[in-house]
Amino acid sequence: MGRQQKIARSIVRAIAEPSANQKRPGNALAVILALLSAFFSLYQLVLRRISPEDFSNVRRRHWNVSDDDYIKSFQPREGRQREEALKAVGDMGFSGSTFYSTADQKRLVKSVPRHSEHSYFREDLLDPYVQHMATHPRSLLVRIYDFLAVSGPSLGRLFRCAPSHHIVMDNILYGQEEAKKRGELEWEHWDLKPTSYFYPERDIAGGALASEATKSRLADEFHDKIVLRREQAEDFFASLDADTQLLAEHNAVDYSLFLVRIRTAQPAAVFSGSSGSQSVSDSSSPTWRTGVMSADGKHVFRASILDFFWAKHKIQPRLMTLLIRLWNVLVSKHGHMSITTTPDEYRGRFLKMCRSIVEIRED
Hints:
Layout: H1 3-16, H2 18-22, H3 28-40, E1 47-49, H4 52-62, H5 67-72, E2 86-88, E3 99-102, E4 107-111, H6 115-135, E5 144-150, H7 155-158, E6 165-170, H8 176-182, E7 186-192, H9 200-203, H10 212-215, E8 226-229, H11 230-249, E9 252-253, E10 256-263, H12 267-274, E11 292-293, E12 299-306, E13 310-311, H13 315-330, H14 343-356, E14 358-361
Parallel strand pairs: 8-14
Antiparallel strand pairs: 1-5, 2-3, 3-4, 4-6, 5-6, 7-10, 9-13, 10-12, 11-12
Helix pairs in contact: 4-6, 11-14
């Protein structure tokens, strides 16, 4: 079994079989062998769910996602192995990052390898996030269904052979694979951040010192408009305002707007295919996670705020801020990066960017 499969197996085990990780062997020798096996494991770490009751409550009470429906996403098809319930869909790079999709495409599992990020979510943002999602049903913040953390010491954790923390999150590209198979719809997506900040990969020596692969990971640009009715635009801006206010209050910067555009001549097919069994809390009124029809009738748009785990008060962000200040004083005046600016300043530029891509069409 390869690295990806072993990591996937540990994730599925923690969600679909949580009691298995808590069960203790019946005799002393079995206990010792189990502890040694866990300690010497490099990739298949023992994971546990953080604040499971909080996430279960928000799933069931506010998102209408039952525990059975949620766990079903992590159960392999009959005759398949546990790890086959997840499919690796992202880069498995030097940092140990992972990105998986459930077999039903409803949910994604993303690793959170940096200590500054997973400690921030656990210690600072988790409770406010859960409360915010419970009181803002139309929030654009990505829905996080679970938070997993490694349990106990192991060589894999010590040498960072496998990620120690993961989040289970919504997949707003749900339905894309089926649409491609039917040949019905054209899907595009962008990961948007304010591009006016200093990006060393792009701005030092005109980008000549960075590879195209490195530069391709920078934020996208959306050279078009989301055409909305005024009511739609006001709903979009109100959600953005409330969500980014929460993030600014908790020192988050560098988050992005993940935008999906679906070209279609049959909008009804998009809504039924995207919401369906996902149990949308307000299915009678399309949301930005299920699909909002543009005012010109040409596209359906989805949107979600992602990657809001970078907080200015954590050690790594503070060190990065110091380095950029030294760079601006000693080398060249470029200004702040998106990861070193202040939360309020980033929020202002982010909201300005989001407003700039919207065109309001009066009825």
